[in-house]
Write a structure and sequence with these properties.
HIT-like_sf; alpha+beta; single chain; five-stranded antiparallel β-sheet; 3 helices; Histidine_triad_CS; hydrolase activity; 5 strands; globular; Hydrolase; Histidine_triad_HIT
């Protein structure tokens, strides 16, 4: 997925679109999601022009998650939700709707209507070992 500098988050970063800012530093920005799923729903985005998590350096990824953790603690203090979901999606097939890497910090409550389901497959340990062998983290 190529980076599109006309995306809504890039426009927010350039000051072309207003936002309700929660936090900002050299690497990240956090602002209220305009489509609040629950009160306190915050977007945490990189200030760097990266489309997906695959485009981030390790330092940028660390900064993004560090800010998400700080924001989650602030959401916890402000709203006392029953839980918090941190969601990060990449590419349209992965549910990404804005081509600028970001995380959702979503306060959760019982029966809030938010759903995330996937069909569990349990291939067994030998197959898991085969799958793991295909992944090399360097």
């Amino acid at each position: 997925m190529a980076y599109d500098d006309g995306n809504v988050f890039a426009r927010i970063l350039r000051g072309e679109i207003p936002c309700a800012r929660v936090y900002e530093d050299a690497d990240t920005i956090a602002f209220m999601d305009a489509g609040q799923v629950n009160p306190g729903h915050v977007i945490v985005a990189t200030t760097h022009p990266c489309a997906t998590i695959l485009d981030l350096t390790d330092d940028q990824a660390a900064a993004l998650f560090r800010t998400a953790a700080r924001v989650a603690r602030a959401v916890e203090a402000a709203f006392a939700p029953a839980g918090i979901t941190i969601l990060q999606a990449n590419r349209p097939a992965g549910w990404q709707t804005v081509p600028h890497v970001h995380l959702h910090v979503l306060p959760r409550h019982a029966d809030d209507g938010v759903g995330l389901t996937w069909p569990r497959k349990e291939p067994g340990l030998p197959a898991l070992h085969e799958l793991a062998a295909r992944i090399r983290v360097e």
